[in-house]
């Protein structure tokens, strides 16, 4: 499958230092809309502002995390728009997903993506109830890790953020194994998009679910981060900042170890302390 990537662009910027100005070229993170269309349903299911790159993985991860599909085999093809009436470059901002013949999907849960964001979300109780109705069981607690292993994650995440190093304007989501080895990292201007890309990549390569794995995100853990982690069956979710109250409620409801403020040799555990070796 052909993909398209223009994650950063170069633009002129004035730098003012010690009262003097100079003009130089600087890289900025690209932000453009991505429209995800279901071909068989003849409809657009989501429009999200994202950083171009791994668009097919983002679409696959989004559909999986929202419960529209349950496995890679539910996807027949993913492609960019081929409509000749649309400007050539803009076609790369539209992804067409063809699902397998006969698959019946419920699109009602996707309606919120057209009018909500992290600042005006849906009711917390309704959000958790929606996940219950999908039938997600509690995540098993067999996996255990040491604080030392967790301390090593932020530096690995930061070192692997190639586009962030060039632009300073991207979030990241990374998956680690039980030994703390970085397996994959995805970047995007939206942390939820980065996680969709990460989970979508694993879905398309048949590496889901994420049993015995750790997810770490830059920024904070929100409702969207926990929702996607529950779908991918992630036992441990870490972030460098604080979680939201709804994220904590969801972690406790579904058995996720939720860690925040993971910086240096310190972190907070908001749920699932039993997975951490402590004295």
From TrEMBL:
Coiled-coil residue windows: none
Active site: 120
Keyword terms: Cytoplasm, Molybdenum cofactor biosynthesis
Record-linked InterPro entries: Cytidine_deaminase-like, FdhD
Compartment(s) of residence: Cytoplasm
Main localisation: cytoplasm
Role, per record: Required for formate dehydrogenase (FDH) activity. Acts as a sulfur carrier protein that transfers sulfur from IscS to the molybdenum cofactor prior to its insertion into FDH.
Protein known as: Sulfur carrier protein FdhD
């Amino acid at each position: 499958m052909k993909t398209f990537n223009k994650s950063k662009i170069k633009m002129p910027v004035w730098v003012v230092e010690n009262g003097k100005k100079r003009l130089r070229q600087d890289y900025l993170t690209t932000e453009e809309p991505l429209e995800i269309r279901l071909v068989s349903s003849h409809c657009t299911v989501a429009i999200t502002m994202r950083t171009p790159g791994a668009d097919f993985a983002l679409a696959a991860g989004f559909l999986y995390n929202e419960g529209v599909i349950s496995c890679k085999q539910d996807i027949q093809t993913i492609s960019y728009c081929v409509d000749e009436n649309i400007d050539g470059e803009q076609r790369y901002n539209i992804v067409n997903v063809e699902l397998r013949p006969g698959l019946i999907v419920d699109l009602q849960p996707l309606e919120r993506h057209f009018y909500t964001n992290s600042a005006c979300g849906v009711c917390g109780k309704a959000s958790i109830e929606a996940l219950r109705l999908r039938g997600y069981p509690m995540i098993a607690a067999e996996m255990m890790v040491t604080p030392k292993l967790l301390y090593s994650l932020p530096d690995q995440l930061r070192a692997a953020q190639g586009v962030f190093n060039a632009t300073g304007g991207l979030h990241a989501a990374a998956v680690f194994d039980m030994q703390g080895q970085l397996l994959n990292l995805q970047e995007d201007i939206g942390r939820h998009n980065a996680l969709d890309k990460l989970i979508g990549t694993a879905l398309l390569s048949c590496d889901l679910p994420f049993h015995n794995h750790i997810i770490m995100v830059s920024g904070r853990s929100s409702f969207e981060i926990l929702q996607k982690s529950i779908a991918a069956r992630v036992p441990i979710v870490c972030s460098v900042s604080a979680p939201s109250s709804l994220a904590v409620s969801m972690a406790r409801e579904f058995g996720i170890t939720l860690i925040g403020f993971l910086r240096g040799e310190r972190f907070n555990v908001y749920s699932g302390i039993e997975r951490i070796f402590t004295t």
